[in-house]
Write a structure and sequence with these properties.
This protein has about 280 residues and is mostly beta strands. Helix content is about 10%, strand content about 35%. The chain folds into two domains: about 5-90, no CATH class; about 105-280, Galactose-binding domain-like (Jelly Rolls), CATH 2.60.120.260. The strands form three sheets. A six-stranded mixed β-sheet has the order 1-2-3-6-5-4. Strands 7, 9, 10, 12, 15 and 18 form a six-stranded antiparallel β-sheet that branches. The protein starts with a strand and ends in a 7-residue tail after the last strand.
């Protein structure tokens, strides 16, 4: 026998349209009732349990309605639709830190790829523009742009980015894509770091860089023909308080003094991936 579904405009009151006015002999176990109360703007979903003798209740946690015509067992059981949604939210909040949960709702990220070919070696202790197609085995002709960073001293290169207008003007993160040149050995490590400064219209182009943030990575291949992608960095703070439309100047450096078992050759840098947070709406010019 199929169950019935009823619709009402009140939980109690004993008048036409109220759930408790429905005669209990017309209800079977498992029947459903949908109640929408206009005055409170709340909706309820209940089912009929013919064996229940629970006390009648309209608390926020559990709705129990006893048909007025019934002196024995049989109760409508359920909760408000709104309370069910809040229960799910409370469960989610209980499983995580509130600040983390709320931050996750608002956080949006994007990524910007900057190839080595877009970088300029510094005048002092600059990286060297690669001139060899070392990943071309004569079959696939895979030529790539890259910069060489020696293991004898720190080397540097710079690049500029005008960030998307949606950028929150806050910190960024980065990963670098690299490998070792001939002579490097599996298990050796390299450390690259990134810093940045912003310049607005009519501001100094030679502003101080922010604090450089470093990330280490380990060479996994003796043949030096495998791509390596570092872990993500910690937050990099852009100096000089970035504004919309600023030219953000980045410096990427190999910091050999921080390498415990330094790659015994040039480190080959293909580029860096910049991660930005974006929360701002984009306005037309």
């Amino acid at each position: 026998m199929a169950n019935n579904a009823f619709s009402f405009t009140a939980l109690t009151g004993g008048a036409a349209g109220a759930l408790d006015d429905l005669i209990h002999t017309n209800i079977t176990d498992g029947d459903l009732a949908f109640v929408t109360v206009k005055s409170t703007k709340k909706s309820y979903v209940l089912y009929y349990d013919s064996s229940s003798a629970a006390d009648e209740s309209t608390s926020v946690d559990q709705i129990v309605i006893n048909p007025d015509s019934n002196a024995g067992n049989g109760r409508w059981l359920g909760t408000s639709v709104q309370n069910a949604l809040w229960d799910n939210l409370r469960t989610a909040l209980a499983a995580t830190d509130l600040s983390t949960f709320l931050a996750g709702l608002a956080l949006k990220v994007d990524h910007i790829w900057v190839p080595a070919s877009a970088m300029t070696p510094t005048l002092t202790a600059g990286a060297v523009v690669g001139s060899e197609e070392v990943w071309d085995d004569g079959t696939n002709d895979n030529a790539r742009s890259y910069l060489l960073f020696t293991n004898s001293a720190d080397r540097h290169a710079c690049f500029d980015v005008v960030m998307p207008s949606s950028w929150d003007r806050g910190t960024v993160k980065f990963k670098y894509y690299w490998t070792g040149a001939a002579g490097a050995n599996s298990g050796e490590d390299v450390v690259f770091e990134l810093s940045g400064t912003a310049a607005s219209d009519n501001e100094d182009l030679d502003g101080n860089q922010g604090t450089a943030i470093e990330v280490g990575d380990t060479l996994q291949d003796d043949d030096n023909d495998k791509l390596h992608i570092s872990a993500a960095s910690a937050a990099v703070t852009i100096a000089n308080t970035a504004a919309l439309g600023d030219l953000v100047h980045f410096k990427v450096s190999r910091d050999v003094s921080e390498e415990s078992t330094s790659v015994a050759s040039n480190a080959v840098l293909f580029g860096v991936m910049i991660e930005i947070n974006y929360t701002n709406e984009v306005a037309a010019w």
